[in-house]
Design goal:
The protein has nine helices and 18 strands. By secondary structure, it is α+β, with helices and mostly antiparallel strands. The strands form five sheets. It has an eight-stranded mixed sheet with strand order 1-5-6-9-14-15-16-18. The longest helix has 26 residues.
């Protein structure tokens, strides 16, 4: 999914040889899980299930179980966020010059905006066939789901079978899911990257027990289109890049897919709306404004080990 993948394992107290065996087994599980996820929903693979479905829709087709689960999860996220998260943004991305492998050939005319309130997928009775009224880019939620599935597999393996379970931290392109401890009962410490490219993180976050951290940022995917700077975080309600006044939003949550969904949805609230939206849901949220200020919710402050510069608690 165009993301570097890294696994840290902390087999506290195990002999070195046993620790190496555990680490190798855990890495094999992670790679296998991400391979399944990539084959199902990556927009960077010409032969993925999602690429094929985008190109064949709106005609109905039988799809893999992982892709169906992902589409159902995306549709639920659309409903819960009131449409602020919606993967049917292929046309908007194409119009500003961002065409991925799975989008190639769909055409911006067909990749139109979906009617408000409509479902992402159409089920055709009990045939098991599914159609997409509009092409879909699963993007961030796909990465979050892959992290969720990998963590579930790790928890069910030798990694999670001990007492206490072996600690691990799995990162995919800056989004993480972690469990246990890196040692001595201490929390995992996760740095939030400076969205303007500074050498040190803007904050360091504690992750205890099982938890996830996801960031939506304009640091990498931004470019010039028709004389203005645009980015990939599209507001489905307008069809244009959103998040006025924000450079990055980070959310900590129990589940990596929901952390990803809320980091995107809250980013689209912009600098004026993010504080009230995050507080109303009790979300641990950190954000960096375009003028460089680091802000956070009260729930986030409780998880913050260190922060750079000025902090305003809204």
């Amino acid at each position: 999914m165009a993301s570097p993948l890294r696994l840290s394992v902390a087999p506290d107290g195990l002999p070195e040889e046993a620790a190496e065996v555990v680490a190798e087994a855990a890495w094999t599980i992670v790679l296998g899980t991400f391979e399944v996820a990539e084959a199902a929903m990556s927009r960077f693979r010409a032969e993925s299930d999602l690429t094929w479905l985008n190109r064949s829709s709106p005609a109905a087709a039988t799809i893999s179980r992982p892709l169906e689960r992902a589409l159902v999860a995306a549709d639920r996220a659309r409903r819960i966020t009131g449409g602020r998260f919606d993967p049917r943004i292929v046309g908007a991305l194409e119009r500003i010059g961002y065409v991925g492998v799975s989008q190639a050939g769909t055409g911006a005319a067909r990749a139109r905006r979906a009617p408000d309130g409509s479902r992402i997928l159409d089920r055709h009775g009990r045939t098991g066939r599914v159609g997409l009224p509009c092409p879909v880019d699963l993007g961030g939620i796909g990465k979050g789901l892959a992290l969720r599935w990998a963590a579930t597999a790790l928890d069910a393996s030798v990694v999670g079978a001990g007492e206490p379970p072996i600690g691990y931290l799995l990162e995919a392109g800056g989004d993480i899911v972690a469990a246990g401890s890196p040692g001595g009962g201490e929390p995992w410490l996760v740095g939030i990257e400076d969205p303007v490219g500074g050498p040190q993180p803007v904050a360091v976050v504690e992750v205890r027990d099982r938890g996830a951290v996801a960031t939506s940022s304009v640091r990498r995917l931004r470019w010039e289109h028709e004389g203005r700077i645009v980015h990939h975080l599209i507001d489905p309600r307008t069809g244009r890049p959103g998040g006025d006044g924000l450079a990055a939003v980070t959310v900590a949550a129990p589940d990596p897919a929901w952390a990803e969904v809320w980091s995107k949805a809250l980013f689209l609230d912009g600098a004026r709306g993010i504080a009230s939206g995050a507080r109303a849901r009790g979300l641990a949220t950190w954000w960096v404004t375009t003028d460089g200020a680091v802000e956070m919710t009260p729930a986030a402050r409780l998880r913050t080990a260190w922060v750079a510069g000025e902090v305003r608690s809204p």
